[in-house]
Structure formats: C-alpha cells, structure tokens
Write a structure and sequence with these properties.
Order of helices and strands: HEEHEEEEEEEH
Helix content: 25-40%
Distance between the termini: 47 Å
Strand content: 25-35%
Structural class: alpha+beta
Length: 145
C-alpha cells in the first residue's frame, strides 16, 4: 500500500473509535497482535473486543484530536503521536491539563498486512483521570497530589 493509503486507514480507525462504530474491527487482520498497558499483549480480533469491553466499562466517551496528530510512516508502519480525552463512567472529564494532558504516550504503532492492520501497540498511561496519586506525587515532586 502507498503511504497515503496507510495513513488514511489509521485515521479511519480513530474516526470509527471516536464514533463508537464496531466496524473498526473490519480494519484488522483476524490474528492482529495487540498491546495496551495494563491490558497486556494479546492476539486476534476477540482480544480487541475484550479490550474494548474492559476499557468501555470505565469510559462514557473518548475523543482523539485527529487534526493535531503527528504522523510518521516507515515502510509498512505508521506511528501516530497525539492527544486524546474523554469522560470516565463516573463523569470525570480528562485530561485534567494539569498532570494529564491526554497524550497517548509517545507513539501508536501499526504494521500492515495487505489492507488490514496486523499489529497495533498502544503506548499510553491508562490513568486517564490522574488518580494514581502516589506515583504522581513521586514524579511531580509532591506538587500535584
């Protein structure tokens, strides 16, 4: 696939996730290799569904600032750096723009198999609403806990 086609596929993924469209699964190979912090590494579309169910139980909504993405391509990989936010199931909005700025860590890496995503590793701090006060206190020097 051409670079522009790969980027278009990745953007389509984020648009579908933000819209809550289950058809995002159509973008992945059957044996997709997936990683997300605290969830771990798993294979297959069933793993994506399980992840979606788990993270969905803690979120009311999620958004990604697609227009602000920094996208890099290297061969069959697309790396996305960006910002996200949403609302937790208890009504807490994030990011708090104090400790959390909604950055999904450094990179979102995709590898492609034909026209399907075969590998997606997400690097993000899953403490979206900044509730891990012990670690926040240590890393911020105690100013944010």
């Amino acid at each position: 696939m051409k670079k522009d086609d790969l980027v278009e596929l990745v953007v389509k993924y984020f648009e579908k996730v933000d819209a809550g469209a289950p058809s995002y699964l159509d973008l992945f190979s059957e044996d997709v290799d997936f990683f997300f912090p605290k969830f771990g590494q798993a294979k297959g579309k069933d793993a994506l569904v399980e992840f979606g169910n788990r993270i969905g139980s803690s979120l009311t909504s999620i958004w990604h600032n697609i227009d602000g993405f920094q996208i890099t391509t290297a061969g069959n990989k697309v790396i996305v750096e960006g910002q996200e936010g949403g609302v937790m199931s208890d009504g807490t909005s994030w990011p708090d723009n104090n400790v959390s700025t909604g950055r999904f860590c450094s990179v979102f890496v995709f590898e492609f198999e034909g026209k399907r995503i075969s590998r997606m590793y997400v690097y993000v701090d899953p403490d979206f609403p900044s509730r891990d006060l012990e670690r926040i206190s240590v890393l911020s020097g105690g100013s944010n806990a």
